[in-house]
Design a protein that fits this description.
It comes from Brucella intermedia M86. It is found in: Membrane. With 99 residues, the protein is mainly alpha-helical. It has 4 helices and 2 strands; from the N terminus they run αββααα. α2 runs antiparallel to α3.
């Protein structure tokens, strides 16, 4: 009797297509927004203190974002979907049902 699994086609899934897009080990969009805000802080105030503060904020936030991405690279997408949910759903079949 022939084995069933031998005649199945195999499709390769390349790692580059399934890997999340990260920058500095964190979510790309969040890192870019953080960098943009740090640069805006530096160039709007134009002092040495603001440059040091902008660099410190960027380093700390990117570190936190890296910890977040290490736990789950899609955590930002999960959180955005989570906040759209309501806290309570009434046990009815339709919103137009009379109570």
């Amino acid at each position: 009797m022939a084995e069933v699994g031998n005649n199945l086609d195999r499709a390769r899934i390349h790692r580059a297509l399934s890997r999340p897009t990260l920058l500095f080990g964190a979510d790309r969009e969040l890192v870019l927004v953080t960098g943009l805000l740090a640069v805006i802080l530096v160039f709007v105030v134009l002092t040495i203190v603001s440059a040091l503060l902008g660099a410190a904020i960027w380093i700390v936030v990117v570190g936190l974002l890296r910890m977040m991405a290490k736990a789950d690279p899609f955590l930002r997408h999960v959180y955005v979907r989570h906040i759209k949910y309501r806290t309570y759903y009434r046990p009815t079949s339709t919103p137009w049902r009379k109570y």
